[in-house]
Amino acid sequence: MQEHPNIGEVMAVGPGAVDQKGRLHPNPCEIGQIVRYGTSGEYLSFPSVTVDGQDLLVMSWKDVVFVEEGHAQDHE
After folding, report:
1. What is d(CA 53, CA 27) in angstroms, rounded to the nearest whole number?
2. Does 3 reside within a domain?
3. What pLDDT sits at residue 72?
4. Residue 38 lies in a domain
5. Does 57 reside within a domain?
6. How many CB atoms lie within 10 A of CB 33?
7. How remote is the C-alpha of 56 from its chain's centroid?
8. Which partner from 8, 27, 35, 42 sits 20 to 30 angstroms from 71, CA to CA?
Protein backbone atom coordinates (compact mmCIF):
# COMPACT_ATOMS: atom_id res chain seq x y z
CA MET A 1 0.00 0.00 0.00
CA GLN A 2 1.40 3.37 -1.02
CA GLU A 3 1.77 6.05 1.68
CA HIS A 4 -0.01 9.32 0.87
CA PRO A 5 0.45 12.66 2.61
CA ASN A 6 -2.58 14.16 4.31
CA ILE A 7 -1.57 17.75 3.64
CA GLY A 8 -2.43 19.86 0.64
CA GLU A 9 -3.06 23.28 -0.82
CA VAL A 10 -6.60 24.50 -1.38
CA MET A 11 -6.97 25.06 -5.14
CA ALA A 12 -10.69 25.95 -5.30
CA VAL A 13 -13.61 26.43 -2.94
CA GLY A 14 -17.36 26.42 -3.26
CA PRO A 15 -19.80 28.80 -1.58
CA GLY A 16 -20.43 26.52 1.41
CA ALA A 17 -23.14 24.17 2.59
CA VAL A 18 -26.88 24.72 2.92
CA ASP A 19 -28.46 23.26 6.05
CA GLN A 20 -31.93 21.71 6.37
CA LYS A 21 -33.46 25.13 7.06
CA GLY A 22 -31.97 26.59 3.88
CA ARG A 23 -29.27 28.66 5.62
CA LEU A 24 -25.91 28.96 3.89
CA HIS A 25 -22.86 28.15 6.02
CA PRO A 26 -19.89 29.71 4.18
CA ASN A 27 -16.85 27.59 3.39
CA PRO A 28 -14.15 28.40 5.98
CA CYS A 29 -11.28 27.49 3.63
CA GLU A 30 -9.60 29.93 1.24
CA ILE A 31 -7.72 29.32 -2.00
CA GLY A 32 -4.01 29.00 -1.29
CA GLN A 33 -4.32 27.79 2.30
CA ILE A 34 -2.39 24.72 3.42
CA VAL A 35 -4.71 22.17 5.06
CA ARG A 36 -4.44 18.80 6.78
CA TYR A 37 -7.12 16.23 6.11
CA GLY A 38 -7.98 12.69 7.16
CA THR A 39 -7.44 11.15 10.58
CA SER A 40 -4.57 9.46 12.38
CA GLY A 41 -2.35 9.52 9.29
CA GLU A 42 -4.84 7.43 7.33
CA TYR A 43 -5.43 8.32 3.70
CA LEU A 44 -9.12 8.58 2.97
CA SER A 45 -10.48 7.72 -0.45
CA PHE A 46 -11.36 11.01 -2.06
CA PRO A 47 -12.35 11.25 -5.72
CA SER A 48 -9.64 12.75 -7.88
CA VAL A 49 -9.58 14.76 -11.09
CA THR A 50 -6.74 15.70 -13.40
CA VAL A 51 -6.54 19.35 -14.42
CA ASP A 52 -3.73 20.55 -16.69
CA GLY A 53 -1.80 17.37 -15.90
CA GLN A 54 -2.07 17.83 -12.12
CA ASP A 55 -3.93 15.24 -10.01
CA LEU A 56 -6.27 16.95 -7.54
CA LEU A 57 -8.41 15.52 -4.72
CA VAL A 58 -12.05 16.55 -4.39
CA MET A 59 -13.27 16.82 -0.80
CA SER A 60 -15.66 18.65 1.45
CA TRP A 61 -14.44 21.31 3.85
CA LYS A 62 -15.76 18.96 6.55
CA ASP A 63 -12.86 16.60 5.68
CA VAL A 64 -10.31 19.28 6.66
CA VAL A 65 -8.86 18.63 10.11
CA PHE A 66 -7.12 21.99 10.42
CA VAL A 67 -5.73 24.89 8.41
CA GLU A 68 -2.05 25.73 8.80
CA GLU A 69 -1.10 29.37 9.31
CA GLY A 70 -0.37 31.36 6.20
CA HIS A 71 -0.83 30.43 2.57
CA ALA A 72 1.08 28.20 0.16
CA GLN A 73 3.26 31.05 -1.11
CA ASP A 74 4.42 31.61 2.51
CA HIS A 75 5.80 28.04 2.60
CA GLU A 76 7.86 28.28 -0.61
Report:
1. 27
2. yes
3. 60
4. yes
5. no
6. 19
7. 10
8. 42
